[in-house]
């Protein structure tokens, strides 16, 4: 058999871009995108993406160029997930919540040739470009207009001279029969995503066509997504390309319900209006839904996939009580989507609700496209599968990034001994299920004991008055470090229901080993968040540092640390 080798017939590069043509053939008249009063079919979406790709190519964009997009979850954002890579260019979605300085740095770093700019981000992008060095070539700009938004926000038509065209005018100049640029190799770069920007220098993560294909198919299989679902875009598409669902919903011929901005009341309204079946969101989205005044029980089950941070069991329990079926997964920008999922076992349905929620809060097992996921100690050895021994989460598989753009040192540091080192701290349970306990920098070492801030947070979320919680280390003269809890409370609480610091501590003492109980509780109106909605623990760590150490004369707890 040695003479049998790959040929052009059996070695076509894998890419999720092929999904669109197939679906337009099967479901040509089925709604592909619904946004306010705008409705497109899959046949129309296929033609529009080809037409737009043709127009982009006419601007001089070629294979390997970077094309950036700064837009919310609107039809144009969805179409660009196909149109940009159809040209052979690399799609770079930029978070709309970033400031002008970071956006400027990203555009400079990736040498973007063309930027599609939503009308709401117009001034932000122009400010970002004004920060370019004087002799630096600036990218071409295309303005995405939105009549509904412009009318509501009373947006003027000024400041458009810097844009060479509008989105629809550019598309009108293209050829709907354009022959799109197929990748030479499935390893060709297709996507460039920057990490969340919690530091001053977010990294540019490069993914291939192959990786995007694998993570898309993987997620559809793991979540058991049926044909023709109704998918509501509550997860930003700029966040790791919406966890691969722009291509995934095309693959199964579903309908994309687009919404410009997350609002719990609007989300519940769209669920009822369009009979939504599936949606995604970080745990903060689940928290917002369950705390909404409009959170009436659903008439039909809605499947919601959550990831991005370990979800507190209490939040999962409240979400499912409304009629959502929650699936939980884990991934990073560097994996292009979810690569670990808490695959559910039927026997767990017989357990009490609180125990089901606890099991579902674990991250789970590797998806089919991942070769291996493990938790290792300092020397690279697998930790005990006891659900208690902490180690760093490592993985290998087809979804892992090619590397960091222009950062060979950073790439080298996270690829070691054939593994991708995530920087996340976790445990492996006896049944082989992974549970994330913290980021490595967030582990608190108190009295020589490593404790997980996530575990403390999970307990805090169980308090009926707590809206959000985050726990960081505070220096302690006796223990070295002790947990410092930052808490925001739910709105509309009656005065008698507003807890004191002492009451929060006592609540934790009843539900945690004593050495894990916060010795400091700080109430805040709102916790600081990153541009992707994650709580900014580095900000809270600085606040805790500025408080100074807890004095030794405060002394240890009167009860033993058990």
UniProtKB/TrEMBL annotation:
Alphabetical list of InterPro entries matching this protein: AMP-bd_C, AMP-bd_C_sf, AMP-binding_CS, AMP-dep_synth/lig_dom, ANL_N_sf
AMP-dependent synthetase/ligase domain mapped to chain residues: 21-405
Molecular-function GO terms, alphabetical: 2-methylbutanoate-CoA ligase activity; 4-coumarate-CoA ligase activity; ATP binding; medium-chain fatty acid-CoA ligase activity; propionate-CoA ligase activity
Keyword ATP-binding: yes
Gene3D superfamilies, alphabetized: 3.30.300.30, N-terminal domain of ligase-like
UniProt-annotated location(s): Cytoplasm, Cytosol
Chief location: cytoplasm
Key word ATP-binding present: yes
E.C. no: 6.2.1.12
Record-level GO cellular component terms: cytosol
Residue ranges occupied by any AMP-binding enzyme C-terminal domain in the UniProt entry: 455-534
Main EC class the enzyme belongs to: ligase
Keywords attached to this entry: ATP-binding, Ligase, Nucleotide-binding
Family per similarity comment: Belongs to the ATP-dependent AMP-binding enzyme family.
The protein's name in its UniProt record: Long-chain acyl-CoA synthetase
Organism: Medicago truncatula
Organism placement in taxonomy: Eukaryota, Viridiplantae, Streptophyta, Embryophyta, Tracheophyta
